[in-house]
Design brief:
Two copies of one chain form a homodimer. Chain A is an alpha/beta fold and 399 residues long. Chain A has two domains: 149 residues, Aspartate Aminotransferase, domain 1 (Alpha-Beta Complex), CATH 3.90.1150.10; 237 residues, Type I PLP-dependent aspartate aminotransferase-like (Major domain) (Aspartate Aminotransferase, domain 2). Helix content of chain A is 39%, strand content 14%. The first copy, chain A, has 14 helices and twelve strands. In chain A, β3, α7 and β4 form a beta-alpha-beta unit. In chain A, α4 runs antiparallel to α11, α6 packs across α10 and α12 runs parallel beside α14. The longest helix of chain A is centred in the C-terminal third of the chain and has 23 residues. Chain A starts with 7 loop residues before the first helix and ends with a helix. At the A-B interface, α1, α4, α6, α7 and α10 of A face α1, α4, α6, α7 and α10 of B.
Chain lengths: 399, 399
């Protein structure tokens, strides 16, 4: 008879490195310290007015289940969203999900059995590791480097990671946590690899429009031949400043994948009704909004990179998109350093909270001299946050 | 090299028997047929005014992520909800989930590895089967019968189903899909079995207050010794007529379980912010509301049972709670019959949509002469729906 205990898969599920620091931040605040939060991608920008208005105008007398695949208007909204990007999905090709995360669960579980492998580019979004652990799926990390601006390695390096168990490649473009936008050549290389080796591409497009300097992401959907192997996971969270709405989608022209995604979706009945409706106007019409959003983040990126370069010993390659950067710092242990910022450092009663990059690597020992910064603060605050970072590094290295 | 295909776990995931009928219902409506829906537990009753008001009054400028464990006020709300039932949870013992379904995913995955087994009482809620398939968990069905009002079998029968792989027992009280309320003796028996065999109890308490004739559920939490082995999954959907809010919780005094549930929760970041806030007033104060709700459903149950008994050849034992009943009908194939109702039957341009009970059984061949009725319509409509059912059985058996 087994003892009462949690499952092995639960024991293997990594804890979020960022969330572990939260109690330390709470303590600092209790001591009267002001904390600049660049540790998490929770944008400070206001949610677009049409979304908030639609929430306030919800008029149904009963808050009913939506269909498991999503409300008709929300599916139509995503359909238009992709059509505007040149990708024509049927209504059956799209399922509305509870944020991008649920789409990732559906995609991972739809294609990978226990012990199957998915290739990810390290550092990568922590949720990939948690979802994989829940499904007993193995992530096969292919490393990218600060010095290359976290761009992809050569084709041979990626192909070397493919085994008989590999079922797909997960690509987030532009990337969380690095801010890197993969070039057209890089996207084409991944599409080629997937076609040659019969792999799925899980394309996490959460940040896709947030790219700078007039650049544009080449979407995987532009490769017609890849369509049966392409699964898009997406979210309104970042592009429409609606993280708390929990609306995303999973989309694919592979009918078999969408059929099983729908079965998974039926197990949780539906996504919150009010928010599905609220997001429709932005899904249908967002050009001007996103143009402005890009400018805001581009200017913030320039500020962060400029200020980071002032700190001795820091390596930071200008990222092309999203709102993240992973600089290399002259420190020995980013977990210790991130805790130090909250427990043992302050300047004029202020400090900064960052995410140690170790949480974005699967390979033990990597990320120890890197942190992730999310530039989700106004520029004046970002300047001060980077100043605090520089002061803290000096103090940390003197101990 | 493997072909591009879905995973085996996805292929093994059962399709929802109810949802397959939806296109047939849509077709019937297009032909001008009025369809009485007793096929799904989507209550027709209005959502309580404090919930709708709170949604309209959401005032934050940015719709931010909530904490992964839930908003402080929502956790406090659930804490008070359980305290009022005599169960004292710490704040850390509760995680707010996206409906009851997400709580079930967290609970199943927290305790069971691939090939591990969970005991369920057949017929059971379809989502259990989907979630188990996603996690490669085996459900071990223990059968209950119409003639017994779907009450539990003898202790020996349940204990016979336990193997070295069994990790827990899933119990929904009162039950979806049967409406059966397990008696104090039955609850105690399950608690005893769990204690003796070191099994978890996953207690699905979605319908717990909806019980009739002055009865009251004995909660598993009343057994102190069971606390380290008890995981509650819960939802506001049915008791507060808020299915579309997608707010539930998972709660346990087993710290290890809650720690891994929190890790799972971190992968999906948070539950919709607006609805978490909106449900707080009802979680804290609902006595009068639930009293009225119970009366409404009790009266509907009486109507349905009375009308069912008028149909020749029907066996229906009066259920004690929830808003479901599974009668035995004089038919050969409930799937065929449910389709027949939508494609080949109508009376005065009206028909009724039911759920074939086959979808609630894991054992092939069971449920073929049973259907599930959800009494989520006004009584006049329920009377007519049962009349239509009687007429349809007559016609179906003449073909």
């Amino acid at each position: 008879m087994k003892k009462i205990s949690i499952s092995q898969r639960a024991a293997n599920t990594p804890a979020s490195a960022i969330r572990k620091l939260v109690p330390l931040a709470d303590d600092a605040k209790k001591r009267g310290i002001k904390v600049y939060h660049v540790n998490i991608g929770n944008p400070d920008l206001p949610t677009p007015e049409p979304i908030l208005r639609s929430i306030k105008e919800f008029k149904e007398p009963t808050l009913e289940y939506a269909p498991s695949s999503g409300m008709f208007s929300a599916i139509k909204g995503w359909q238009k969203f992709y059509r505007d990007k040149g990708c024509n999905f049927d209504l059956n090709d799209i399922i509305v999900t509870s944020g991008g995360s649920e789409g990732l669960i559906f995609a991972f579980f739809a294609i990978a059995d226990p012990q199957d492998e998915l290739i990810v580019f390290e550092p990568f979004y922590t949720s990939y590791a948690i979802i994989a652990a829940m499904g007993n799926i193995k992530l096969k990390p292919v490393r990218t480097y600060v010095k290359d601006g976290f761009h992809l390695p050569k084709r041979e390096v990626i192909e070397k990671a493919i085994t008989g168990k590999t079922r797909g490649i997960v690509a987030c473009n532009p990337n969380n946590p690095t801010g890197t936008m993969y070039t057209a050549d890089e996207v084409k290389m991944l599409a080629d690899i997937a076609l040659k080796h019969n792999l799925f591409i899980i394309s996490d497009e959460t940040y896709q429009e947030i790219v700078f300097d007039g650049k544009k992401v080449l979407p995987f959907s532009s490769f017609k031949k890849l369509h049966p192997q392409l699964i898009i996971t997406d979210s309104v969270s970042k592009r429409f400043n609606s993280c708390g709405a929990r609306v995303g989608c999973v989309a694919s022209k592979n009918k078999e994948v969408m059929q099983v995604a729908l079965r998974f979706a039926q197990s949780r009945l539906s996504v919150a009704t009010v928010e599905q409706l609220a997001l429709v106007p932005m899904l249908e019409n967002h050009k001007a909004y996103l143009e402005k959003l890009k400018k805001t983040y581009q200017s913030r990126r320039d500020t962060v990179v400029r200020e980071l370069k002032k700190i001795p010993g820091v390596t930071a390659v200008k990222p092309e998109g999203a709102f993240y950067i992973i600089p290399k710092l002259p420190i020995d242990d980013s977990d210790k350093f991130a805790a130090f910022l909250l427990t043992s450092f302050s300047d004029k009663k202020e400090t900064v909270m960052v995410a140690p990059a170790t949480g974005f690597y699967a390979t033990k020992g990597l990320g120890k001299n890197e942190i992730r910064i999310a530039y989700v603060l106004e520029e004046k605050k970002l300047e001060r946050a980077m100043e605090l970072l520089g002061l803290a590094i000096k103090k940390y290295n003197k101990i």
